[in-house]
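lol forgot to send this yesterday, sorry. struct tokens for the thing we talked abt
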């Protein structure tokens, strides 16, 4: 399974960006699907994740500004980021907890994308 992110870049404070992440491979289903981020010198933290049952987990710092959506038919998840702040600057990683073929056996595993840089200038 590969997670391919797109949509990062440079934006001014107050602006918006939309990230996309497409999961490719022999995927049977995806439970948790969402986004983490890691700023320089800090630990990776959850931004937003969404379960297949519709539950959403948000970091307090992004509530009211960021939203998540997923297209289960396309195994794709989106992160809409509005009213961006300089402290949102980080590498954003797509995350999936998915059931996929691993050496011919359907197995639940965690998968990570390569990360996409989001830089918010003040």
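and heres what i got for the seq, position by position
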């Amino acid at each position: 399974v590969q997670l391919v992110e797109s949509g990062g870049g440079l934006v001014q404070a107050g602006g918006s960006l939309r990230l996309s992440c497409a999961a490719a491979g022999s995927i049977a289903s995806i439970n948790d699907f969402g986004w983490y981020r890691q700023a320089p010198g800090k630990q990776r933290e959850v931004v937003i994740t969404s379960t297949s049952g519709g539950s959403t987990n948000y970091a307090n710092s992004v509530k009211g500004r960021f939203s998540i959506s997923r297209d289960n038919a396309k195994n794709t998840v989106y992160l809409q980021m509005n009213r961006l702040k300089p402290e949102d600057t980080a590498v954003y990683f797509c995350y999936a907890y998915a059931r996929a073929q691993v050496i011919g056996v359907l197995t639940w595993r965690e998968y990570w994308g390569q990360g996409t840089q989001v830089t918010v200038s003040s």
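The longest strand covers residues 90-102. anyway ping me if u want another try
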